[in-house]
Structures are given as structure tokens and as C-alpha cells.
Amino acid sequence: MHDDHGGHGHPNYFLVFAALCGFTGLSIMADVVTLPYGVKIVAVLSVATCKALCVMSWFMHLKYERAWKYVLLAPTTILALGLPLALMPDIGEHYYTPDVPQVDDYAEAVAHAAEHVGGHAETHAVHPETTTPDSGATSESK
Amino acid sequence: MRKFWCLFFMFWPIAAIVYSAMSPAYGWWFPGDSVTELGQRIDNLFYLILIIITVVFIGTQMALGYALWKAAHNEDEKAHFSHGSHNLEVIWSVAPAVILLFLALYQMDVWRDFRVKAYFPEGTIETPIAEVTARQFEWRIRYPAPGKKLQPKPQPDDLYAVNELRAPIGRAVMIQLRSEDVQHAFFLPHLRIKQDAIPGQIIPIWFKAEKKGIYELLCAELCGWGHYKMRAQLTVEREVEFQDYLKKLQTDQNYDGFPTSDSVAKKEE
Amino acid sequence: MSTAEVALGHDHDHDHAHAPDAHGHGHHQLSFIQKYVFSEDHKMIGLQFLFTTLLMLFLGGGLALGVRWQVAFPWTDLPILGRILFPEAGGQMSPEFYTMLFTMHATVMIFLVIIPILAGAFGNFLIPLMVGADDMAFPKLNMMSYWFMWPAMLFFGLSFYHGGAAAGWTSYPLLSDLRQSAPYSGSAQTYWLLGVTFVGVSSMMGSVNYMTTIINMRAPGMTLFRMPLTIWSMFITAILQAFALPVLTAAGFMLVFDRLDFGGYFEGIHSTFFVPAGLVVNNAEPTVGGGQPLLWQHLFWFYSHPAVYIMLLPAMGMVSDVLSCMCRKPIFGYKPMVYSMSAIAGLGFIVWGHHMFTSGMNPALGMTFMVSTMMIALPSAVKVFNWIGTIWGGRVQFNTPMLNCVAFVSMFVVGGLSGIFMASVPTDIYFHDTYMIVAHFHYVIFGATLFGVFAGIHFWYPKMFGRMMNETVGKWHFFLTFIGFNGTFFPMHMLGIAGFPRRYADPYLHPYLEHLMPLNQFITYSAILMGFSQFLLLGNFFVSIFNGKKIGRNPWNANGLEWTAPSPPGHGNFDILPVVYRGPYEYSTPGQVDRDFLMQTDPPLRKTASTVAATPAVHH
Amino acid sequence: MSHSPTPGSAVPPIKMGIAIPNSKLCLWLFLGTEIMFFTAFIGTYIVLRLGSKGWPTSPDVTHIKVFWGGLNTFVLILSSYFVVVCHEAMNQHNFAKAQKFLQMTFALAIVFLGIKSYEYYGKIDHDILPGRIAENDYQAKKKVLSESEKAVTNRLTGLVKQLNSLKIEYAKPEPANDQGKQRAVIQDAVGKLKASNSPALADYEGFVEMDKAFGEMKQAILAEQITSSEVGKKLSDLQANAQWGWVFKSVHEPHPILYGNIFASCYFIMTGFHAIHVIVGMILFVIVLKQGSNLDGKWTDFVENSGLYWHFVDLVWIFLFPLLYIL
Ligand code: HEA
Ligand code: HEA
Ligand code: CUA
Ligand SMILES: [Cu+2]
Fold first, then answer.
1. How far is CA D12 from CA C390, D3, D16, in A?
2. ipTM of the complex, rounded to two decimals
3. Neighbours of D (≥3 Cβ pairs closer than 8 A)?
């Protein structure tokens, strides 16, 4: 039947569970302490990858499956990583000038607010650093 | 009957070639020589590819026909038994690979000159002559006032025209392409230029028209029911004429009586 | 039993045995509904797909003739239908109607004809028979994949009812996204998207099923490299669908959500994936947004380029089988054929950008896509040369399947070669969105795929119905279609070179195109000829079901497993459990005297010929 | 399982294919397609975010709280754990135990959806809904205006209707929704109510006062004299009024959120489709749970496969959590 990993007994699922909880704790930590944004991205995404690997290897028994897992997962992984990567040069960056009125408006509003003494036009709605029109992507937010 | 079908499959490629060869004479061909040098290079590339694929076309179709002919008249009791040939496979993968790689690399410079900003002719990027905004279903053109530079945002003294773009002859010029609503494409068949206008982006296009004249400007990306009638003109004229035109636009625009300029009149149509 | 169960667990009986007597399907009578309507038999499902798609071909073709009428005789009364459809306009169509016509023409042809006829009809009918299984791995799932076509057709019908989607089959936003940009196709566009989603669900169900069947349900001895190329092509197609289609489905959902705009509390709620801010469409308030229209093009073509190979590969596989049989010769280069199909599939995932060369994509990306696009011509070249190699030295039988196969190869070369003009970016700058493109893809889709399908229909018809189709009618159909086809689409290359834009309701508004009207009229006459010759096919198909010559199991003296089953095969397919000893292309094997084919089930050849005659394998 | 050899055959029978059941193979293939499905959404989110000049990240704006996301992560991991031990119990033919574990999983799925709904509620409450978010000052002011206008209009029609029950004679405005005429009716009614010393008078006088205050704000907005935060102040002044401030309760504060709409679009489509997958998983579990004491070894594959599916749902969340909540 399906039980072709018979000999292995079963892994200690509770241990895996505990590890997953630990990883979750780590990513929350990454949010609580202040890290440089780049470090934070790398940190939480690698933690997420570790978690995913844990779930896949033990909970989904991939550790005990035969070679078909590579045949199935290799192309999937390549495509899943490749699609966003291929979108980057066009959507994630702009070769031509983006025409984004809301950013221009926002810049105007900020400038306008600076003119007023007391500058209360600074909306609490938007995080100021993230939205200076030329700060590029979200890199320095938070 | 066998002969008929073999000849049938050999006859049609010949008909196709004959038909293609006589097409230019009937005007079923490019709308004249390209008005730009870049367009010339595109045409040359076209002819290069045309030659290559004509050879491949004749070669494969005749091979097919000949193989059929031979096989139809095969007097042997049984067909020739063969599972293939490794050497042949190698030959006919490598040969096209070489041709295709050559093609791919050979034409990169045309693409680069047309699209890569760093390779635009000097001075064009800094001083666009106009901003062309596509909208359903017309082209709005904004020139800077004579002697001024085009600003990204509209200025009070900008000059406007609708469906009438003008450019000086013999000088590489750049326009900024925008769209106000859906996607359109800026297509100048006589200049071999096509570029989509994408909402949310400003895309520069440059060209250097070498021949005076009035050329069609059409929309080449489906933009709604009126897609087909998004018709405009590019007038290529001498530098002085172009400057005069801008001045005329300026006086017309500043004239505060009843509007008389033809651009406004056009708009009323 | 819920369908989830079927897919997730309870398939034991199919796991255990292939012999029909071992799993007890046979012993109860099926009601009419079970047998012909909600059938779980792959053959019936295949036939359901076949009938549906053949009828849809006429709908799509009818729409195409409407398109042709307008391009050749703009603003004149549409014959016959005009007075009924547009009485107020005196029978002449409006530009928005024209836009709708070609959109729905392409939609019907692609989503309701080509894709389902290849994967749905032939895939279903042939896969279990050719791998030697008694049915698909999941018969219920299979049935559902057919019945999910119906909501799709319903939604497309609703779309028609509401005026029809009119943003092209590519549905580029913002035309397809902002309601106010195409007011006449308000909900029609939304229904269209839902229709595409359901076609997607149907294909998805089919593709996981096919993959499972091909991987796990092959007859003993049917190793991967003994599979007929048809099976290989179906397998690769299924993989393409499995990985590409979800992306389109996701993109489709995004577009649907962009279009949502309920009133009441939900007023104004809609996503903005493809909508940049600040657009003023039809004098409405400026849009809010943050999205990017190019994103749709990427996601759409990420599916739709592989999809063009989904529309071609199965036909390539079928043509290989038919060609080999009709030339009485092994397919030339079996493994290269397999590898080249895989290469087409693999490369197919990295060339989608060639549809966007003029879209304002990053030029570096454009170069990359140009190189990969050029490279994809290589495996195609290998295939073309292998087909010619197969014919070379054969003993050709000029019957209808063979003629259609040769036309397939011949037309595919034309379509593929015109693809080279487009693969090269600089020339594509000029040719993009002109009739050059229209010529190109009709040559590959109609010229190649449909001729391949015609070949397939004539070739496997005896297996489907136990009767032959009429040869004379078949040849006339082929002859007229071929002439009409080339008359229609070859001149379109010239239109393209002349800069004739596609999707134009009235191109003659532009003076430099005026002189092309007579050529377009010629094209339209050819299209009418081609269109009406399809009635020969339809007539032949339906009349032969009742009147065709009855035949035995293996009328073509072919090798595949399907020919060992009765014609038509009963429920469970095989009365003798097939065991496979060799590949499917052993024609004219030396050392064999009394016949020139060796079926996959024939036991290994001994030195003497007598063993051959004594084999239990069934033929004639 | 294997094929019985055909008598006299020269080839030994072989089981073709790979050694897992069709159902599991099919499920894994299906998961492959699911990965691509979510890739499209996640990839879209990533590239759109990188391609935008700014993205709302502050929890005050987005109402995305790491605490709830973390809790939900924990809930899903726990449920994944229960599903896997459930399958283990199935393997050991301990069906009662398996049932119990599956019930736990199911309960946790409900908890997950509960927390998710709570989070959605927070967004809806602040009108952080795609398409409805103001992206600049102007839109924010316009939004306040249209929402308050709606609130005032509602109050107005309500008061006019109420006149019937107060037994006040009045000329029915014609057409009924003509606001000018309705306002005239109210003015008229104020006089009449004063005369009859009705307790409802306060309402009607209140409306007149409110209408005036609202009119001032409207004027200011239309004349573009004030910024959105000033509008916000005005609005909270209105709302603070003890007598009629409640009318403006449904009006949201002006919060222009740059790139707010695309943010909300991505957030809702990713978490929404994830939630749909959770629900599908729950349906699969219900099918098993429904078996009650009939659960037996036949169901092992089914449980395993739904478990695989559930782990996949967990996997998706594992990536959504950092992407949406932390970064
Ligand atoms: C079955 C469908 C199918 C197939 C198989 C193909 C095959 C190919 N297609 Fe096509 N294509 C479409 C369907 C298809 N296409 C459709 C529907 C569109 C339009 C969509 C729309 O916009 O509506 C389109 C559009 C399209 C474009 C976009 C044009 C534009 O909009 O600007 C491009 C550009 O590169 C392209 C290229 C190619 C190439 C290079 C191949 C190659 O795979 C072809 C390879 C084959 C050969 C080259 C012939 C055989 C080879 C030889 C004989 C060897 C020797 C050859 C040489 C040395 C040159 N196609
Ligand atoms: C499988 C794909 C497929 C097939 C088979 C066809 C078949 C045909 N196509 Fe199609 N076509 C597309 C796919 C296809 N097309 C696509 C993808 C587009 C792009 C759309 C877009 O731009 O978005 C397109 C666009 C397109 C255009 C361009 C429109 C434009 O850009 O303005 C034209 C113009 O001539 C055209 C013509 C034809 C013709 C004459 C046929 C003929 O082969 C049809 C022959 C007829 C039949 C086979 C049926 C016979 C029917 C009758 C005799 C009538 C009976 C009537 C009823 C029963 C109702 N097609
Ligand atoms: Cu504008 Cu087409
Ligand atoms: Cu393509």
C-alpha cells in the first residue's frame, strides 16, 4: 500500500512541531528588534524557508519518498522562482519613467505642509520615510 | 492519383513563391521605402530573413515533395527500415542553430539603437520636441513654447495640437509617449516605428526622418471600438517650417478672440 | 461518493488490475444517462469532447466569416444575418460589434475548439487505449473535466448575450479592466473571464488525470521509451498545462476582481492590480490604483505562449503516429522527437516576452526573449526534418489521413518560418499587430494543428465507431480546405508587409491601405470556400457513423495497443490484457515475411517467420 | 497489486510507473499546480511592491498586527501537527484516536478562520478596502465629503419620514428625494414642532444646526481651502457633538494612504484565496469526520492525501506571514 517507508518508524512529529514554533518565534523577534531592512528580509525569508523545509520533509514525508519528488519539485521550484524573477525587470523596476500622480501629489502635500508652520498636514496615515517620492522601493521603511 | 498528390504538394510552394515575387508590383508590399535610417536597417534585416527563410522554405517543401514522390514510386516490397540517424540529427540541429544564433546576435544593434536609452542619438533625451498623449480615440500633442524645454508636467505656455504631429527633417528628435486611458500603440508605418503607449509610464521614442512629407500615424493596439479610426498625421518638414508652425500655434493659442487656428478647428470636428 | 474522494483516495480498483474482468465494471448494465451523458468512460467522454468541439468549430468559423465580411466589404450589409442582427442599421455591423466578433472568434476557436479537441477529445480517447489501461486513473474527475466545459460555454454564451467581450482574446487591461473604457461590453467582459476560468478548471482536471494515467497505468512492458509519440505529446502537453494554466487562472481572478463594482455598501470596492492611478477614462473621475497594466501581459503570456504549444504538440504527436503508419516506416529519430518535444515545452516557458516586444518592456528583457525565441525554432526544425526523414524511403499510401499529415508538415513550416520575422525584435517592431501575425498564427494553428486534427479524425475514426469514413469525400474535403486555406491566409503575409493593422474594423480609412481592398475580398472568397468545405467533413463524420464501411480491429495495419482492442472498444477497453514487447513504430522490420508491421503486443520475433503467424495478437 | 503473469509470455510482468498510489501521485501533481497558482499571487505582490514608490507598512495604517498573524501561524502549525499524528493513528488502525486528532485539526481551522475574520473586520471597519482608499489629500477630502453627504441625506430622509408618525402636516416634497424641498419641509416642521412643544423638536433643530456645520465643512472642502487633516479635525468636531454627532459615526477619518489600494488588493487576494483553501481542507476533513465509527483502513489514503493538502495550506501561510505581516 502507501506505506513504502515502512522501515523508518515515524519521525518525532512533536519535535518538528516544536521547531516550527521556534522558527515562528524567530520571525516575530525579527519584527520586534530593529534590524537593517535588508538583513530583516533575508532573515525572515530564510526562517520561512526553513519552516517550509521542515513541513515538507517530515510532515509531508518527502524525506522518505523516492526520486520522483525531485522530478516533480525541481521544475516547480524553478518556475515558481523564475516567474517573479522574470517580472522584476519590468514590474519591479522601471526602465522608463513611471507616471505616478499619487506620488507627485504626495510630494506636493508634504511640501505644502512644510510651508505651514506647525506642519500638521503631515498625515499620520502614511509613513513618511516610505513615501518620499524618490526613495525608490520600500527599502528603508520602518 | 499518387503523382497528382506529389505534384500538388510541390506545386503550391511554387505558386506561393511566384505570388510573393509579383506582390511588390501590385503594391502588396511595404508602403514605400523607409523614411528613417533605422527603418532602412529594419528593412534590410527583413530582406535578410526573407532570403534565409525562402531558402529554407524551398528546401523543406521540395524535400518533402521529393520524398513523397520517391516514396510513392517505391517499387520495393517493403519500406526502407531505419530508426534514424544520429549524424543527420546532429547536422540538422546544428545548422539551424548556427543560422538562428547568427540572426539573433546580428540584429541586436538595431534593437539597441531603437530602444536602449543610452544609445539614443545625442541630445534627443534631454530635449524632447513633444509629448504625445494617446486617448480614446485621438492623439493629443503638447509642444513646449518656442525656445523652451518640454517639462514633464504641463506648463501654462505649452502649445497643444490634436492628431497633428510635426517634426523637423534631418534631425534626430524624441517624443514622450503617454496614455491617458487604455493601452494604445504609436505606429508610423512609413518610419517603421511602433511603440505601445502604456498607462502609467512615459516612454521615449526617437526618430530621424530623412524625407519631407505627410505620413500616417495610426494606433496599433486594440483600444476599444474606435481603435481603427485613431488616425493622425506626422508632418515632416524643414526646421524653419517647423519653428514657424510652433510660432503659429503660439499666436493662435494666445489669440483671445474667436478661435480660428486649424488645430482648434480640427478639435471641433 | 463525492468527487473529492475519487480524486483523493478511493481509486483502488484502478490500482490493482488492468484486465477488465478483474474489476467488475462489466457486470451491471448502465442506464442511458450513465452511458451517454454522465459517462465515466474515457472513450465516451472523448467523443463528447469531439462532438462539442466540432460544432464549436462551426460557430467559431461562422464568426470568422463575419470578421472577413467586414474587412473585405466594410459597412455593407452583412448577408443573411445582418437584417436580423442589426435591423436599425439596415444590416450593417457596428465597429464595436466587429471588435466583439474577432474576440469571440478567437475565444471560441482557442478555448472551445483547439485546446479541448486536442487534449479533451483525442487525449481522452487515446491515452488509456494507447498505454494499455482500461480507463483513466480517475474516471469521475474525467467526467467532470468534460462537464466543466458547460459552465464555460454558458458563461461565454452569457457574454454573447450581454454584447460580447470586445477586448481581444488577449484581453489587455485597461480596456478589459475599466468598465468605462468599453461601456458596451460591461458585464460581457466579466462573464468572458469567468468562462476562461472554467475552461481552465476543466483543462486542469484533465491534465492531472492524464499525467497520473500515463505515469502509473501503463500496460506491462510499456516503458517510457516504448510509448507512442502521441502519448509523449499528450504527457508533455499535460505538464505544460499543469504549470502554466494556474498562472492564467490567478491573473484572471485578479482581472475579475479589478472589474468588481457592486453598488450599495460594496460600492467602489474593486482591486487595482492592473490599474495605475490617475487615468481619466471617458471623462470619469481619475482612477485610484498603484497597479501596472504590463503585469497582465506578462502573466497572460506566461500561460498563453506555452498554450500555443498546448495547441500544437498533441497534433505533432498524432501526425508522427499517422505518418509512420502510412509510410510503413519507423518514425525517423524517435528519441530526438521526444527530446525535441520536451525542449519545446521547456523553452516554451521562457519565450513569452516575444509577444511584448513593442509593449515598452525593458529592452534587456527583450533581447533575452529574442534569443530564447530563436532557439525554440531548433526543436521544431528537428521535428520537421524527422518527418521528412520518415517519409523518405517509405511506401506511402495516399489516403486522407496521410494527405492531411503532409499538409500539416508543409503548413507548419510556413507558419514557423513567418514566426522568425517576429522572433527578431527589430522586424517585429514593424510587424507587431499587423496581419503578418494573423497569417503566422493561422498557419500554425489552422494549417498545422487543424490539419493534424483532420488526420487524427480520419485515422482513429474506425476505432471510435467501428466504421471507416468515406475516402472520396475525405479527399475532396482535404483538397478544398487546402486550397481555401492557402488562398485565405497566404495573402495575409502580404497585408502584413504592407502594414495592414489587425483588429481594424475599417482599415481603408487610412489612404495607404486603400488599394488592399481587392486582395481582402479575394481572401474573403477563399475563406468562404474553406468554410463551406467543412460541411464535407461534418457530413462525412456524421453519415459514416451509420453508413461507413464496417471494419475489424486494425484496418490500417498499425502497431499501437489501441488496434488490439475491438472497434469500438467496449467498457474496459481490452478483451486481452496487452503486454508490450517493443516500441510502436516497427514497420517493415526486416526478417518478417508475411506482413510489414509488428504490433507492440506481438511477442519477440524469433528467427523463423512461422512464429509471427502463430501470435495470438489480434488484427484484421 | 502486481500483474499476474500472462501464461506463456516471454516478458516478465512489470508494474509500470512509480510506487505510490494514483491518488497520491495525482495529489502531488495537483499541489504542483497549486504552487504555481500561489506563485502568481505572491510574485505579483512582490514585484508590484518593489515597483511602487512607497508602500504602507505602518501597522497604524494597515491594521496588520504581527500578533494576530503570529498567533494564526501557530494555530496552523498546530493543526498541521494534529493532521500528521492523525494519519499516524490511521496507520496504526487506531481510528478513534485518529478521529480525535482530526477533530482538533478541524477546530483549529475554525480558530484560524475566526482570527482571520477578526482581522478582516478591523480592515472593513477602517474602510481599508481595495478601490475605496484615498491615495491623496484631494481624494481623502472627497471621500469625507461624499460619506458625510450620504449620512446627512439619510438623516434628512429619516426625519422627513418621521414627520408622519409625529402627525405633523407637511407638503410632501415632490420629487420625494429633492433635498432642497426636504430641507424646506424640515425648516417648516421646526416651526410647527415649536408651536406644539413636541419632544421631537430637539431632533429637528439639531438637524438644522448640523446641516449648517456640515455645509461649512462642505464649502471649505469644495473651495479647496483646507487640507485633509484639517478636514479630519472638523470631522471629529462634528462627531463630538453630543446631540447629533452620531450621525457622522459612519464617516471614516480622512487617511490618504499612498499605494493603499494596491496594498489592500494584494492583501485580500492572497489571504482570501488562502482562506478558501482552508475551507476546502475543512470540507475534506468533514467527509472523514462524518464517517464516525465507520472510519476504517480504507480511509488511510484519503486522510493522508487531505493531510498533504492541509500541509500545503500551511506552507502557503508560512510564506504569507513574513511577506505580509513582517516585511
Ligand atoms: C500553434 C500555435 C503556435 C506555434 C506553434 C507558434 C510558433 C512560433 N511562434 Fe507564434 N504565435 C501564435 C501561435 C503559435 N506560434 C499565436 C496565436 C500568436 C498571436 C497571438 C496574438 O497576439 O493574438 C503568435 C505570435 C507570435 C509572436 C508575437 C508577434 C507579435 O505579436 O508581435 C512571435 C514573436 O516572436 C511568434 C513567434 C513564434 C516562433 C518563433 C515560433 C516557433 O515555434 C516556430 C518554429 C518553427 C519553424 C521555424 C519552422 C520549422 C523549422 C525549420 C524548417 C528549420 C529551419 C529554420 C530556420 C533556420 C529559420 N509568434
Ligand atoms: C484555432 C484558432 C483559429 C482558427 C481555426 C481560426 C480560423 C479562421 N480565422 Fe481566426 N483568429 C484566431 C484563431 C483562429 N482562427 C485568433 C486567436 C485570432 C486573434 C483574435 C484577436 O485579435 O484577438 C484570430 C483572428 C482572425 C482574424 C483577424 C481579425 C482582426 O484582427 O481584425 C481574421 C481575419 O481574417 C481571422 C480569420 C479566420 C478565418 C477566415 C478562419 C477560417 O479558418 C474559418 C473557417 C471556417 C470554418 C472552419 C467553419 C465553417 C463555418 C461555416 C461555413 C459557417 C456556418 C455557420 C454556422 C454554423 C454559424 N481570424
Ligand atoms: Cu488607440 Cu487603438
Ligand atoms: Cu508565443
1. 32, 10, 12
2. 0.91
3. A, C
